[in-house]
Write a structure and sequence with these properties.
Shape: elongated
Order of helices and strands: HHEHHEEHHHHHHHHHH
Number of strands: 3
Strand order of the largest sheet: 1-3-2
Helix content: 40-55%
Number of domains: 4
Radius of gyration: 29 Å
Distance between the termini: 51 Å
Number of helices: 14
Length: 356
Amino acid sequence: MNHYPHHIGDFNTATRHLSRLERAVYRDMRDMYFDKEQPLDGSDFDRLARRLVCVTPDEIAALQFLLDEFFEQDEEGFWIHHECEQVIATYRAQQEASSIVKSNENDRQIRSRARRAAIFSELRKVGEAPAWNAKMRDLLALCRQHGIAIPTDGPVTPPVTGPAVTPPAPVTANQNQNQNQLIPPNPPAGGAGAVDAAPGRAGGRVGQAGQGGAVASAAAMATATALFAYFPDQRRTRIADVARKIEELQGIGEVTAEQLLRAAAQQADRLGKEEGKACPSVLRWLRDSRWLDAIADAGQAGSIPDNWRDTRSGVEAMGVRLGLGPWDQDKEKLFASYERRVVEAYEASLGLGVPA
């Protein structure tokens, strides 16, 4: 991207608590995010700091604070900014739409030129030689004058000079309907979720459909689209990656599409709580096996499963059991911090007789 929308009021409201240094670093981080059209690579913090020209202790401290404040790190070390993801998704959707319009215009021009060539060929057979730049209405008038049957609502097939070519079968209404079922809903306010043809990421990251990565099957895309319906708009990002992750999980027998959708339906109320404030992205939900949270939720009312550390709900259930209470995002923005407290409390409790 060579430009992106900057809403002054929204930016000022979101950064009112920052210092001038932090605001400046934050703008540089956003510029880098949009320039690369991908999350910030935090696998090497020193390298990221150097790329953002954060060299003094104050600048490095500001960078660390901003990452914790506005970004979410995935398991591969990339720092994701959901607002930036939405803007990039909207930009890519617009680029895709523009490409389709241009392609349709090119097809129209090709059909128009072929039709004119066929008309000129038919007119030459009856001794007419109109000017090369004659208007179409004049050419059609000549055709009618000489009794040449030229349709006015479609192209004319030029004379065949080689082997006959079988035209492609027309797309039926049912095929159009099936294709439309794979298009995800458009989130409001330019949200993500309607973009599949996005450029791949550098550094070996999985690319989007058709650009640097394998394309997910239609069934996986349909499951991803259905899954999006249970998540808040701002969490419906990277649908191509989501579809491929679903395909991967199904391939290793981890979970079925029906189980994913049933679990998402059971968790829909919690996912949308407080406008999705604590809701993970759909891709993060899949990577963390959070479809298992439904089982862990049941355990909060009674016994806690042995694999409670594998799910967020299991960790929260243990936190409640140990008197730490559920995760409070306002108090501890990163769930990992809360999880460490729970694990430490659990390990300390083993010598005190607190049940597991």
